[in-house]
Design goal:
By secondary structure, the protein is an alpha+beta fold. Helix content is 68%, strand content 8%. The chain folds into 2 domains: 117 residues, no CATH class; 70 residues. It is built from 9 helices and 4 strands, in the order αββααβααβαααα. The chain has a 4-stranded antiparallel beta sheet with strand order 1-2-4-3. α2 crosses α3. The longest helix is centred in the C-terminal third of the chain and has 52 residues. The protein is rod-shaped and about 150 Å long.
Length: 195
């Protein structure tokens, strides 16, 4: 039996992965009532952590979650029994046939596959790429924001440098104007003129 078919029949009820009696009966190729009779004959092998019957509320919720045709609806007058992984393993001893054993092995593999899927969910490549693009976009925005801050600081510094250079040029022009000689130089020039 294909693993995916069995996996689709594993439900989560009371936060436990279970298979319902009607699905197990279908997989084993027996009637649901025959499966339940075999279990009742060996009830000591099925404690509450192996098997339990759905409550009215669980049964109503479960029925509302599954789109049912009339043929599927048939036989759902009573609340089904739910078998945990341990309960399904115990069924192989109650339904003691080669077919039951082979099917039970497939069911155990399906339970393990579902458990692995829950423990290691598949990586969402698209979501991962979206997160990376979002992080890259934020990084680029931060870089441009820093760049703009640097440009503003640089512009202010250049303005200050230009202002200082303009002041120095004005000061130099004032210093470069010819001045009347004073002091010792003036006296010597007068002597030269007299001679």
């Amino acid at each position: 039996m294909e693993l995916s078919i069995i996996r689709d029949k594993i439900h989560k009820i009371r936060n436990i992965q279970v298979m319902l009696d009607r699905d197990l009966a279908e997989i084993y190729g027996v009637e649901t009532r025959m499966l339940n009779q075999a279990v009742k004959r060996n009830i000591e092998r099925f404690p509450s952590d192996f098997m339990f019957q759905l409550t009215d509320e669980e049964f109503s919720y479960w029925r509302s979650q599954i789109v049912m045709t009339n043929s599927i609806n048939m036989g759902l007058r009573r609340k089904p029994y739910a078998f945990t992984e341990l309960g399904v393993a115990m069924l192989s001893s109650v339904l003691n046939s080669k077919t039951a054993i082979q099917i039970n092995i497939s069911i155990m593999r399906a339970f393990v596959a579902v458990r692995q899927l829950l423990l290691n969910p598949p990586i969402d490549k698209v979501g991962e790429l979206q997160n990376e693009v979002r992080e890259l976009k934020q990084y680029v925005e931060d870089v441009f924001s820093d760049y703009n801050d640097i440009n503003e600081d640089t512009r202010i510094q250049l303005e200050l440098i230009n202002k200082s250079l303009a002041e120095l040029q004005a000061k130099n022009k004032a210093l470069d104007k010819p001045r009347n000689p004073i002091g010792f130089h003036a006296i010597e020039e007068r002597r030269k003129k007299r001679e």
